[in-house]
Amino acid sequence: MDSSLLDAEEKDNTLTLQNEFLRHLLLTQDSVKQEKSAGGMCMKTRTVNGEKVFINICYSENVPEPKDLTDDELLKVLESEDPTKFRIPMSIGEPHAELDKSGGGCTVYDVVINPNFLNKINTSELFKTFFLTIMCEGIESKYDVLLKRDWIFLKNRKSLGKLAEQHIRTKSTPLIVDMESTNQLPAEQPEKRNLIEEIQKEDEELNKKAPEPIFSIIQEPMDGYPEYLVAEISLPEIKTAQSVTLKLGEDRLLLTTRSHVYYMDIFLPYDLVQDDCGAQFDKESKVLTVTMPVKPKEIVQQI
């Protein structure tokens, strides 16, 4: 196979599953606007080691509002095959040390959401519990801590300590939940595993005879020119991510597997930012999720 078909600049872009990349997608915000948010409510909890933690749940108009669902609609989403369809944009700031009312030391996190969604969680226990669960998981993933779920809210206080300025993006990014049962693709391919351009002709023919896995590709946002493409590829016969070799070209996705179990070679409707792409394999659902940032429209038009 001509490797130039995969990459116009002849770069080798074998993907790796990186937890840090997934955390980046879930938690970081583009530096569109730096703003000091307003306090909404303050939650108190502890780490599993007993350290006191406060979370200021703040609000800003510059954080996108999630889709407005009823409680029944949220339940249906949570019971569906893809509960990540409902996404809650939030900005999680850096932890800062503060003193509680007794003068004891504590750690404080500022989490910023849309003010309309703040009103929503104040009127719906279902949405509130769902949001707090996602928020705690986000803090745990971003800062490598473990929080207890026995939280309480301060009655007469909207925040603790000084609220820090945060970079708030004005558009939502895909929420990719880092599932507990993920398995990492190695950062470096073992020498015994041939890269695509080194595969012998016999292997290449066997690959092409392998069945194409069931997959779906969605764009984010759903309307207009996308920021991301997200591919979900079902690999029920695969036990570990190390059995999968995944390569992305400028507008092409190529997947092969050890023992020629699956073969997938498709062209994509948009040019990708290859260096920022990432993948995650869930060993329980056997689904490989590939997140592919799309080159901005104005850059593509200049090429």
TrEMBL record:
Pfam family, one: PIH1
Family: Belongs to the PIH1 family.
Annotated source species: Biomphalaria pfeifferi (Bloodfluke planorb)
InterPro entries associated with the record: PIH1/Kintoun_subfamily, PIH1_N, PIH1D1/2/3_CS-like
PANTHER family referenced in this protein's UniProt entry, alphabetically: PIH1 DOMAIN-CONTAINING PROTEIN 1
PIH1D1/2/3 CS-like domain residues: 224-295
GO annotation, biological process: box C/D snoRNP assembly; rRNA processing
PIH1 N-terminal domain location: 40-174
Protein name per its UniProtKB record: PIH1 domain-containing protein 1
Purpose: Involved in the assembly of C/D box small nucleolar ribonucleoprotein (snoRNP) particles. Recruits the SWI/SNF complex to the core promoter of rRNA genes and enhances pre-rRNA transcription. Mediates interaction of TELO2 with the R2TP complex which is necessary for the stability of MTOR and SMG1. Positively regulates the assembly and activity of the mTORC1 complex.
A single cellular component GO annotation: ribonucleoprotein complex
